[in-house]
Protein: Spore germination protein KB
Amino acid sequence: MLKEVISDRQGISMIILFLVGSTSIFGVGMISQKDMWLGIIMALIMVLPLIFIYIRLHNLFPDQDYYDILEICLGKVLSKIIFFIKFLWIAYFTADIFDTYGQFIKTVNLPNTPQIIPILAMGLLSIWVLKEGIEVLGRWSEFFVYFPFGLLIFMVILLIPQIEITNVTPVLQDGIRPILKGGFQTFTFPFSQIVVFTAAFQYFRDKRSPRKIYLSGFFISFIYIFLIATVSLAVLGPDSMERMYFPIYSAAARISVGELLQRLEIIVATSFILGGFVKVSILLLCTTKAFTKLFGFTEYRFIVVPIALIILNLSYFAYDSIMHYFEFNYEIWPTLLFPFTVIIPILTWIIAEIKHRGKRGKGSKKRTLIN
Structure:
């Protein structure tokens, strides 16, 4: 297998675009209503321990991806079962993101265009970039990562006149329960999805890279998501945001500066497409890696095309309508995400720590005998 080394800036850029892509059009934690911003902070508190676990796994097993770590910790038989389940899960996850892209384009821009057309276009680009390798995706991300933040500054400044403080006050009007629910909702989408990078990343520049990449990428993404969601809430109000399919996009559509600046929601759509491309590419990479580990191959690139075509077909038939899509993603998908983003990584980390301490204990005994 080729040794694909990513720089710290490339890793940070990929995490940022991965996390902020979908949130450039969707709301997060809307069940918290006026306290949505508190729900986002709650999600931050929930996900930080997991991020430190992911960093620790990289430090315990340098130059190994998550699938290699699973095989080391669980053994070949049990790890194969996990690979198979994880392959099915992440393949559906990839199809879900492809469908998100297709649903958005069809709903707001090209209602008469078959949904498969934008999905296929995104799929072909993802196939090409994965055939070239994750380093190419990293360089691409490093170049385009500044675009969403230009959007954020532009959007916040132009929406200031439309902000209504009453849309975010009073604080804790309905108690702590909605904040906890909104926090869990934001935790599952998008924060905990950062787990896929444990499988995507394998070789780093130095030992400190995992910590720098994960924490910097996550906190920069958090600032973006927090600001764009809170400003949209202050402009639209909680009831309007909950009724809309794409509330952030709708908030951007309100920007109008005379006859000079109108229809600026296209900037939001562009940000979503850039982030969506990185997201589906990373997920497709993780899917192909799971398949190659399951069947004992050492290289993933030869299987990218057939797996991508299967996933593209699955994405087209996954949901009957946009209402079915949102119902599944808000009511069922968080439950399916939880074992793969929380339970399995924590169990893997516990086993990894036990094995690491066992090896360290054996090493100290050998040194004692020699002395």
